[in-house]
Design goal:
Layout (H helix, E strand, L loop, with lengths): L1 E2 L10 E8 L3 E7 L5 H11 L7 E7 L2 E8 L11 E8 L15 H17 L16 H16 L7 H82 L5 H4 L1
Parallel strand pairs: 1-3
Antiparallel strand pairs: 2-3, 2-6, 4-5, 5-6
Subcellular location: Endomembrane system
Keywords: Coiled coil, Membrane, Protein transport, Transmembrane, Transmembrane helix, Transport
GO cellular component, one term: endomembrane system
């Protein structure tokens, strides 16, 4: 297990974190409280844990706040007693001993969720045919817990800013959706404009086609009339040569 008291305890907020199988089997812990009070408080709370269903609970005790998540159904074959992710913080209240500041519960539970995610993804899945108790005194797990708690205490951990990131992500998604709606509206307007232009062009084309058709019809009539007149003229000319012009007297006589 990892244990340390780095810097002044008066400045330390995240004092103790642990992953526990059942109520007493500590798989990994990190203690940054030189007084040992934080660890003792976690033991007292763990003795009261009832593994009936998943829970997220918080307690206040003087200058300390204790937060934990229970998972009674976590891989029953390897963790039949259930798992608890617990963290103890130096309490920050709003002046009322029965209340938390705005981030009094959000930050520690985000830390616990991140701790659970790391444990499940990197370690719990490796327990095959055995018990999670085999993970006790695993240096890599102890280091991950220690680093996570220290980063959270310094405000450098992604967990402490996860809520803000989620808000920013939601804002980004909303902005993208609005932009898509606006873009879609612009495309619809463009499509409507193009449709209107196509309809207008179709009407204009029909008008022009009708005009051209009428012009071609009259030109065809004119051509036929001219052709008929020309043929009549040729016949008259031919008859005139034979019968004498202009009145065709010889043929008539």
């Amino acid at each position: 297990m990892a244990s340390a008291a780095e810097g002044s305890s008066n400045q330390q907020r995240f004092l103790y974190g642990a992953i526990v199988h059942g109520q007493t089997s500590v798989l990994s812990e990190y203690n940054a409280d030189p007084t040992g009070v934080a660890k003792d408080l976690s033991k007292v709370v763990l003795e009261q844990v009832a593994f009936k269903d998943d829970k997220k609970l918080s307690f206040l005790h003087g200058n300390y706040s204790i937060h934990y998540i229970t998972r009674p159904s976590d891989v029953p074959s390897s963790a039949p007693l259930g798992l608890t992710y617990i963290v103890v913080l130096r309490n920050q209240t709003d002046g009322n001993s029965s209340g938390f500041k705005d981030d009094g519960r959000r930050v520690p539970f985000l830390f616990l969720m991140d701790l659970e995610s790391i444990f499940r993804s990197k370690y719990l899945g490796k327990v095959v045919g055995g018990s999670v108790d085999d993970l006790r005194a695993t240096p890599a797990l102890d280091k991950d817990l220690r680093d996570l708690l220290i980063r959270a205490d310094r405000g450098e951990n992604d967990v402490s800013g996860l809520a803000r990131q989620e808000i920013e992500q939601v804002k980004t998604i909303m902005i993208e959706n609005v932009e898509r709606v606006l873009e879609r509206g612009e495309r619809i307007n463009l499509l409507v404009s193009k449709t209107d232009r196509m309809n207008n062009n179709a009407v204009e084309f029909r008008k022009r086609a009708g005009t051209v058709k009428r012009q071609m019809k009259w030109q065809n009539i004119k051509f036929r009339v001219i052709l008929v007149l020309f043929i009549i003229f040729l016949i008259y000319l031919f008859m005139g040569i034979l019968c004498g012009l202009p009145g065709l007297q010889q043929c008539l006589a």
